[in-house]
């Protein structure tokens, strides 16, 4: 039985929210700095990158390691604790607040995705929810953390997995969608 269409999407009605607009001087300036210093293969020192993030409003702890080819949407929506490692080609698409706790690691190609679209809306409205990664969290290579997810203390999202809901403390999650597969026991 074929389902009848109840409406259609009209992207001409889509409205960009002002805080996401590329029209402001701050957004344009950040776009250039992000492209020239962060999202490049040239290995600029982490200290320089941290100072630039702070200049643009990010809250950054000490001992943060920022590898090449990182893409950060809005640094003024970013909080990073102490001794955090962010690997190559990580994309922090932080339309709203992203908090990364101390001693956490985002491996190569990880994606923190705060935004989505309402597929039921004819305007395809943008929605955004914050992401929180507590202390000691490890987001594996090529993994995706979806809008609104909180990863509790020392949770692990295994390589190539997709977190669509919260991750419990001291557990390893794997798959798409990510499921709890084992306890994370850290040797003394």
Description:
The chain has 188 residues and is α/β, with parallel strands linked by helices. It has one domain (22-183): UDP N-Acetylglucosamine Acyltransferase, domain 1, CATH 2.160.10.10. Helix content is 13%, strand content 27%. The chain has two helices and 19 strands. A seven-stranded mixed β-sheet has the order 2-5-8-13-16-18-19. Strands 1-4-7-12-15 form a five-stranded parallel β-sheet, with helices on one face. A hairpin with a 4-residue loop joins strand 18 and strand 19 (179-183). The longest helix is centred in the first third of the chain and has 14 residues, at 25-38. The chain starts with 24 loop residues before the first helix and ends in a 5-residue tail after the last strand. The model has no long low-confidence stretch (mean pLDDT 93).
One letter per element, helices H and strands E, the order comes to: HHEEEEEEEEEEEEEEEEEEE
Shape: flat
The fraction of residues in strands falls at: 25-35%
- N-to-C terminal Cα separation, in Å? 60 Å
State Rg. 18 Å
Q: Describe the largest sheet.
A: 7 strands, mixed
Q: Which bin fits the share of residues in helices?
A: 10-25%
User: Mean of the pLDDT scores?
Assistant: 93
Weakly predicted, low-confidence segments:
none
Highest CATH level, the class: Mainly Beta
| CATH architecture annotation | 3 Solenoid
């Amino acid at each position: 039985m074929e389902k009848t269409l109840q409406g259609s999407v009209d992207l001409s009605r889509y409205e960009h929210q002002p805080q996401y607009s590329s029209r402001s001087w701050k957004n344009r300036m950040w776009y250039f700095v992000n492209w020239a210093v962060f999202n490049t293969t040239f290995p600029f020192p982490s200290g320089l990158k941290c100072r630039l993030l702070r200049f643009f409003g990010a809250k950054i702890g000490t001992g943060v390691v920022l590898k090449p080819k990182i893409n950060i949407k809005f640094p003024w929506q970013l909080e990073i604790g102490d001794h955090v490692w962010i690997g190559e080609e990580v994309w922090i698409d932080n339309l709203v607040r992203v908090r990364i706790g101390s001693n956490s690691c985002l491996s190569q190609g990880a994606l923190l995705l705060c935004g989505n679209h309402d597929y039921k809306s004819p305007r395809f409205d943008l929605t955004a929810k914050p992401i929180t990664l507590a202390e000691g969290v490890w987001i594996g290579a090529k993994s995706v953390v979806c809008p609104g997810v909180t990863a509790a203390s020392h949770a692990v999202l295994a390589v190539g997995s997709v977190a669509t809901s919260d991750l419990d403390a001291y557990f390893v999650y794997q798959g798409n969608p990510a499921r709890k597969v084992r306890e994370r026991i850290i040797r003394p």
